[in-house]
Structures are given as structure tokens and as C-alpha cells.
Amino acid sequence: MAFSISSGIQVHIMLYQLDLPQVLEDEYDGWLSPRILEDFKAYADVCFREFGDRVSHWITIDEPNVASIGSYDSGQLAPGHCSDPFGIRKCTVGNSSVEPYIAVHNMLLAHASVTKLYREKYQVAGKGIIGISVYTFWAYPLTNSTVDLEATKRCQDFIVHWVLRPLVFGDYPQVMKNIVGSRLPSFTKAQSEDVKGSLDFIGMNHYYSLYVNDRPLGKGTRDFVADMSVYYRGSKTDPPPGKEAPTSIGPDPQGLRLMVQYLQETYGNLPTYILENGKLVLFFLPYIFGFSSPYSSGYGSSNDTVHDNDRIDYLKSYIGSILTAVRNGANVKGYFVWSFVDVFEYLTGYGQSYGLYRVDFADESRPRQARLSARWYSGFLKNREMDVQNELAMAAAESRAQQ
After folding, report:
1. One CATH from 3.40.50.720, 1.20.1300.10, 3.40.190.10, 3.20.20.80 for 10-307
2. Which residue in the list 193, 276, 364, 385 is annotated as catalytic?
3. GO terms for molecular function, please (predicted)?
């Protein structure tokens, strides 16, 4: 951190990303209990106290929408809660019909509590800001029919506004309250006032777009996916989805621009940060839609090459879409490429390679090598044009020299 600050880098810290201490799960079921509010606040207090003079941006929780669905509906993420017939895996504990909603409710209350702590005790001295991260995708209606248009709006209400609307306006979307009913926790008047306005900025993770059409609301017991009552596909020509995920999905930079502008129009042009973009595999779709297999972007992201020209094209187009949004008045303050280096992925371990820097996991010393996308991104940040072919030749020469 000291090196980053001395180099003029603004430090962004995320307090929580799917890493709940096991002891809290064992003691009181983690995010399913309101007891976690005090523990999360105590943890945040330590972080603010120890690092607040060096951190300019705080993100409380990463993707409450994905975290709750993956952990408490599909059962793919720790602690692996789900109930038949909704789980992707065979779970021994859980209730997919109610637990995702309880988990998000407690995450929102915890966020609000931590935000209040930061604003009252640390913000003046630290001069930082605090927000949350939400997983987003742009949704196009499959047809212009009334039911598909309503389904597309309902999809965003369940995925995005489930998290953001309470933090800006103090309550859940009305359509969720209508469909989920008593399974959706209610905010007391005091809680509503606490969560309302507890954002200095919106953090969004965004990779792709989907086409959405209406799915009749099922009778009997439902989970989050059934409550949302939509079908989805990667393109208009895709066949109706089954239990297995489609094999590919293309980039849609326009979708990021539309998503940014949509959030700005909905939430009063709050400062927005694109906290994740650029990953070439889309593993969160199984959590959200109940796939039994991962969803790949079609870029061949298991290819361990350093000559990732497709990644450069992706970054160029998506960054360009952000520029268009800014020119249209969007209050976008920052952009992060995911990821800096090849990292551990929750569903595939180290089997996928999508970092700007390649890591050789076969070598115990874990050497790193800049991919072509890293060279391009460095040039972009320095505001200079890059001859990609020359860079490709340089990278190939380096590769031959190492061999």
C-alpha cells in the first residue's frame, strides 16, 4: 500500500468478498443472522482505524446479489446452502426459497451500519468515500411484446435494484414485494432511514448482455430464479435455455453504456465506478440462473497464450462505450480491468487464464509474463497509440528467447 500511495495510486479497498470466517458460520449461521451486523461493523472499524489515512475508496461488500444466490440458493458458493429441487449441487442444509433474501437483507443492513460508522468517525479525517459493488448485465427484451418488456424490467429489479434501490430510496422494488411476499424481509422505519442514502458511489461489475423473455410465474414453492420468472439467452437466435448453459456469448460494449446510463437515470447520477470488466469467462451465470455448468464467453479463455488480441479488442470497445456514456452525461469516475494477473477462480481454480499478466502455475516460483493486453493497457494509460503488430512481434521474440 505504501508503494501504491507513493506512486500516486488511489487505494480502493473491498472489505468483504465471499470470505466469511468459518467461526461465524458455525456460531450463528453467518449472513442469515442479524448478529453478523455487529461483527461486520467491528471488523470494518479496525480497517478504518488502521488504514483510513491511506485509503480513498471503500467498498463494503462485493456483489450481494451474486453472493447470496450462489451461497444460499444454488449452493455453489460457501457455505453451500440450498434445498431441492433448486440446488445445482446436493445440499445438506438450506432453504433456497427464503435464505437468499435474508442474506441480502442482512448485507444491506451491515453496509448501512458500516457506512454510518465511517461517515461519523473517519470520513472527515480520511477524506474518503464509501460504496458497494453490484453485479450487473444489460438485458434486452427478446421481443417487443408487453410481457417481454415487463420481464426485462423485472429482471433488472431482481438482479440490480434488489441491492441498490434500498440503499438509495429505502425499500425493495415493488415487484419483488408483490412476487416474493412475506419471504422478502421488511425494513422497519428506522432501518429504512439507515439504509437510505448510504452510498457515496455505485460500484458495478459488468461483462455481458442477455436477451430476456417472460416465463410464467410457477405455482408452489419457488426460489429466487423462479420468483424472477424470466427466460434468458445470449442472442436472439439462441434456442430456449435448458439446465445446461449455452456454450458462448459475445461481447456487447453497448450494453455497458446502456447499463451505466440506466443506473445514472435511476439513481440521480451518483458517482459510478466500473470495478470489474474484461474477464473472458462468465462464471456468475450459474449462480443467478441455476445452470448446472459454467457459461463461457467463447473467447477460448482457457488458452494460456500471451498473444491475446481478442482481449485488446474487448477492452478497447468497452472502454470506448464508457467514454460515450461520459459524453452523454454519466458520472463515471473510474474503471478497473479484471484481472491484473491470473488468479484463483471460485469454480475452476487456476484452470482459467484471463489476467493481463500470465502466471506460470507449473513453476513453483510462479513467474509472471506480460500479455499483449498488458502492453496495450499500459500504453492506453500513458495516452499513447500502440502498434499492436510491433508489440505482438516483441512478445513472440520474448517467448522464443525464454524457450
Report:
1. 3.20.20.80
2. 276
3. beta-D-fucosidase activity; beta-galactosidase activity; beta-glucosidase activity
b/e burial code for range 361-383 (CB count within 10 A of at least 16 → b): eeeeeeebebbbbbbbbeebeee
Please confirm, yes or no, whether 50 is among the known catalytic residues. Answer: no
Q: Out of 275-279, 365-369, 388-392, which region has the weakest mean confidence (pLDDT)? A: 388-392
- Whether 63 sits among the annotated catalytic residues: the reply is yes
pLDDT value, residue 392: 55
From the list 63, 99, 244, 398, the catalytic residue is 63
What average pLDDT does the segment 107-135 reach?
A: 97
Q: What is the pLDDT of residues 224-248, one digit of tens each?
A: 999 999 998 888 888 766 655 555 6
Q: pTM of the predicted model, to two decimals?
A: 0.92
Mean pLDDT value across residues 57-61: 98
Domain boundaries, the chain: 10-307
pLDDT tier at 278, thresholds 50, 70, 90? confident
